[in-house]
Description:
Layout: E1 26-28, E2 35-37, H1 38-41, H2 52-59, E3 80-82, E4 94-99, E5 109-113, E6 120-124
Antiparallel strand pairs: 1-2, 3-4, 4-5, 5-6
GO molecular function, one term: nucleic acid binding
Keywords: DNA-directed RNA polymerase, Metal-binding, Nucleus, Signal, Transcription, Zinc, Zinc-finger
Subcellular location: Nucleus, Nucleolus
Amino acid sequence: MSFCHARDFLFCSMCGTLLSFDSLQFARCPLCGFKRAAGDIEGRETRYTVTAEDIRRELKIEPFVILESAPVDDEAVQRAVVNEECPQCRHPQLEYYTKQLRSADEGQTVFYECPQCRHKFSINT
C-alpha cells in the first residue's frame, strides 16, 4: 500500500516534514522517523515555481516602493496603526499603509512596519 499522493510524495504522511534521502532503499522523516520506500518516489517529477516575491521574502529584500513625500508644511506623514502583533519582536501594534501595485482589478498591497524593532513585511490582499 502506498501513501504517495499526486503532490506530497516528498513529504511525510504523518507530520508533513520534507523527507530526507538517507539511503537508496528509503526516504526518512527527520522529525518523526516515518519511512517511505524509494520505489514509491522513483520516477516521479516535481515542479516548483519561484516568484520574485518568494525571492524577496527569502533574501529579506524590501519591495521597491516610493513613498509619497511629506506635506509642504513639514509635518511627518502619519501611518495608520493596527492592533496586530509583530511577528519578530511581538510588539502589540504595527504601523501600515496600502499601495496599489498590481492591476486595478486586484487587491492592494498592505505594507506593515513595527514601530519598535522596525521589522517590515507586506501582504497582497
